[in-house]
Design brief:
Shape: elongated
Structural class: alpha/beta
Helix content: 25-40%
Strand content: 15-25%
Order of helices and strands: EEHHEHHHHHEHEHEE
Number of strands: 7
Strand order of the largest sheet: 5-4-7-6
Largest sheet: 4 strands, mixed
Number of domains: 2
Distance between the termini: 70 Å
Number of helices: 9
């Protein structure tokens, strides 16, 4: 029995098996167009990318019938080059790493993690920051305080207390009690048990706040005359510039 027109699939959503497709596949990845082979996309059977093109289709198509993947298209060329020739990218490492994680291409993930950029971030910096209590929460707190103070201002500042040891933490608390400011607006980082110094942590804070799109600078916070502690030993001012 023939299928009447009203029962035929509508639109561009694919419903037939991919086994019937041409071995040449056209892709639309976030607006970037690519042409490759089905065998290239399925090169690593355990990957999410291979699963997209195995069995029943798991992707919609665009108006031209190309399979659509809603990911940044710019970096897919590096993924595709790796699948074609096992060439590990040397550009845009951080971004390609994110895409490799999304597509779950395990061999590429492991090779990228051996690169200096990813190794330094995952093994050195992130392992250090994992030992700094409430680091991520404090970054968000800094941003909230800065935004709250930005009304009708070009700049707003956040005072940060950084202590490396428990002994410094006690001294910092004494210093904090002597400061003429709202203590709730002071963000405290530390203590931690790791090699990196206070200046290393300050660099990390600036790097991570800037990664969120903010323009900031840091300087020691100098307290009023007669202050009985050297405030610059613990306190720093992060200056957010809005325009």
């Amino acid at each position: 029995m023939s299928i009447s027109s009203e029962h035929k699939p509508l639109g561009k959503q694919v419903t037939s098996s991919l086994h019937t497709l041409s071995p040449i596949v056209e892709l639309n990845v976030g607006g970037e167009m690519y042409t490759t082979t089905l065998s290239t996309l399925k090169k690593h059977p355990g990957s999410k990318l291979a699963e997209m093109f195995t069995g029943q289709p798991k992707l919609r198509t665009d108006s031209e019938g190309r399979f659509f993947i809603d990911r940044p298209g710019t970096y897919f060329k590096y993924i595709l080059e790796y699948l074609r020739s096992n060439q590990v990218p040397t550009q845009c490492i951080q971004d390609v790493y994110k895409e490799a994680l999304f597509y779950d291409i395990e061999p590429l993930i492991k090779q990228l993690e051996d690169s200096p950029q990813i190794f330094g971030e995952l093994v050195a910096r992130k392992q250090f920051l994992a030992r700094v209590p409430n680091y991520s929460e404090n970054i968000e707190l800094m941003i909230r305080i800065a935004r709250a103070e930005a009304v009708a201002s070009r700049q707003s500042s956040v005072i940060v207390c950084v202590v490396r040891t428990e002994e410094d933490a006690a001294r910092c608390q004494d210093a904090l009690n002597s400061l003429d400011m709202d203590k709730k607006s002071v963000v405290k980082f530390g203590p931690w048990k790791a090699v990196p110094s206070i200046s290393d942590l300050l660099d990390c804070i600036q790097m991570d706040v800037e990664a969120k799109g903010y323009k900031i600078s840091v300087q020691p916070h100098v307290a009023e005359k007669g202050f009985r502690f050297k405030s610059q030993d613990y306190f720093y001012k992060f200056l957010f510039t809005w325009w």
